[in-house]
Amino acid sequence: MATDAAPPARQPNRVQVSTNKKPLQFYLNLSRRIMAEHGEVELSALGLAVSNMVTVAEILKKEGWAVEKSLRTGLETLEGEQRSVSKPKMEVVLTKSPDFDRLFAEHPPPPRGQRQGPPAEAAAA
Predict the structure, then answer these.
(1) More exposed terminus of the chain, fewer Cβ within 10 Å: N or C?
(2) ∠ at Cα 113 (110, 117), nearest 5°?
(3) How many domains does one find in the chain?
(4) pTM, whole model, 2 decimals?
(5) Is 34 inside a domain boundary?
(6) 123 in a domain, yes or no?
(7) Which part of the chain is the DNA/RNA-binding protein Alba-like domain (predicted)?
(8) What is the mean pLDDT of residues 54-61?
(9) Is 122 a residue whose pLDDT tops 70?
(10) Distance of CA 36 to the CA centre of its chain
C-alpha cells in the first residue's frame, strides 16, 4: 500500500516574498515581528521577486534591525506544460541586531491585519 508523503511543515520564521501579493512594508513589518518572536527570519524569493526580497533585507540591515547570517542562491526548475523553466532563487537568513530590542520597543510594527497609516497628528490635520 502506497502512502503519500506529507508536505514539508511550514517554518514559522520563513517569509516567501512575492512581487504581487503585498507591499514592501508588509514584509518589513512581518520580518520584524518574526525576529522578535524567533530571533531570526528567513526571507525567500523566486524569479522576479528576488529584487523585492533584497530590498527588504537591505532596509532591515541599513536601519539597524538585522544582521545577515547566511545567503544562498540557486536555480529552481519548474515543470511547465511543454518544457521546464529555471528561475533564480535566493534565500537570506537575518538575525536580530544588537539594537533590535530597543528599536522594536520604540517602533513596534502595527498589529496583524491592521494597515500602518499616517501618524494620528497628520490624520487629525
Answers:
(1) N
(2) 50
(3) 1
(4) 0.79
(5) yes
(6) no
(7) 14-64
(8) 98
(9) no
(10) 13
Return left, alpha or beta for 77; rule: phi > 0 is left, psi -120 to 50 is alpha, else beta: beta
User: How far, in Å, CA of 63 to CA of 99, rounded?
Assistant: 10
Quick one: 61 exposed, middle or buried, by C-beta within 10 A (0-12, 13-18, 19+)? middle
CATH number of residue 47's parent domain: 3.30.110.20
pLDDT 10s digits, 62-101 = 999 999 999 999 999 988 888 998 999 999 999 999 999 9
Domain assignment present for residue 91? The answer is yes
Residue 92: which residues within 8 A CB-CB, separation 6 or more? 42, 43, 53, 54, 57, 68, 70, 71, 72
CA distance 88 to 102: 36
Determine what percent of the chain is predicted with pLDDT higher than 70: 82
Residue numbers of the domain that contains 38: 14-105
Residue 9 covered by a domain:
no
